[in-house]
Specification:
By secondary structure, the protein is an alpha+beta fold. Helix content is about 20%, strand content about 35%.
Length: about 140
């Protein structure tokens, strides 16, 4: 089966905590990443968790670009999914790496579509804080 889309799962490590905690900065950086990638922005929504963290998504005609930040860990998780081969997702992720001042960026690429199965080996990633639904609380 031919892939219908490609998804990049990116982990940004050792980021500037102040940038990760700033909802306006995260919003503008995500919009710029989508623009630089050549994506067509439809809308966006971001939420600031008290006291820390930002989650949000940029809806693009080609699918989405989402982020979740953990300023207390200097960490951000980004999911970039497109169904268009013209989108330069790598360029967008590089914009985010620079904006967040991430010392390390790790990326896993997954092809998506009926009949395609992601192997566990392809999805191996470093240990990260668990994503728990609901509002964030200070540990």
């Amino acid at each position: 089966m031919t892939a219908l889309g490609r998804q990049l799962l990116a982990e940004f490590l050792h980021c500037d905590p102040e940038r990760l905690a700033d909802p306006e900065f995260i919003t503008q950086s995500m919009l710029e990443a989508a623009r630089v990638s050549g994506a067509t922005i439809v809308t966006h929504s971001f939420h600031h968790f008290a006291p820390l963290g930002v989650s949000g998504v940029v809806i693009i005609s080609e699918s989405h670009l989402a982020i979740h930040t953990w300023p207390e860990h200097g960490f951000a998780a980004v999911d970039y999914f497109t169904c268009g081969s013209r989108i330069e997702m790598d360029r967008g992720l590089e914009v985010l790496r620079a904006a967040l001042e991430a010392q390390t960026m790790e990326v896993v690429s997954v092809e998506r579509g009926p009949g395609l199965k992601a192997s566990a080996a392809r999805l191996r990633a470093p240990a990260v804080p668990a994503c728990v639904p609901g509002p964030r609380r200070n540990p």
